[in-house]
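Input chain follows. Return structure tokens only.
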Amino acid sequence: MLQRDSARYQKLRRSVETFPVLPALRTGGYAPAFFERRANEKDSQLARNAVSDARSDLKEDPTRDNFALLRNARDNVKQADARRDANTFDLLGSSANGAGRFAGVFRKKASQTKLDSGYRSLRLAQQEYAKNPTEINRMNVQLANLYIDATLQEDDGNTNEITGTIAGLNANAKALNTILFWKNFQDESNLWLRYDRLARKILIAQQKADAKDKASSTDEQDSVSNRMLGMSMYGSQFESGPSRGGQ
């Protein structure tokens, strides 16, 4: 999953920055940032494609839900671009006196945009559950809340990164700050794991519900077909049953 993979990349990058004892990990900068930037470039293109699809859906069906989905798609583009820019600064340098100290600012921008999308999706899920309080819709509300909780951990981690790299903390304070944003991203990773599990549970439940609806629809169609066939062969008596006189 993209969110959990991203959190893992962030933890790896911070490990290298905190314990810079592996010079072989440098590839014009830190290797994790190099590959993460490549991934974010792809994510940006995919997000732009999703905007085109969402725009078409809104044109065909101009509902409030589709408008919100279009806004989320646009936010995903902003996120990917901000993360790509953060990786660019990662590659330019990681010391407190180098350009790398500005990377956290762009990550913070991305996580704030991600939160906006999360709260928007939560409102949609809550509205759908209010209209149709099914178990699947209840789980969708829970899923949206997990998304927000994980993103809040990411956002806090980005705040701690900015504090640690720009504020000029002393050695002890910087070590404490490192522990804090490490914990943020560990908690975030755990929350994305829970998100993945719940998303799979919802998918399975939805597949079962769809199969049940399809079976019910097929049974109903078969029943209608049988009645029509019976009426064509036996007339109206097929529907009304044998008369009392014939019993």
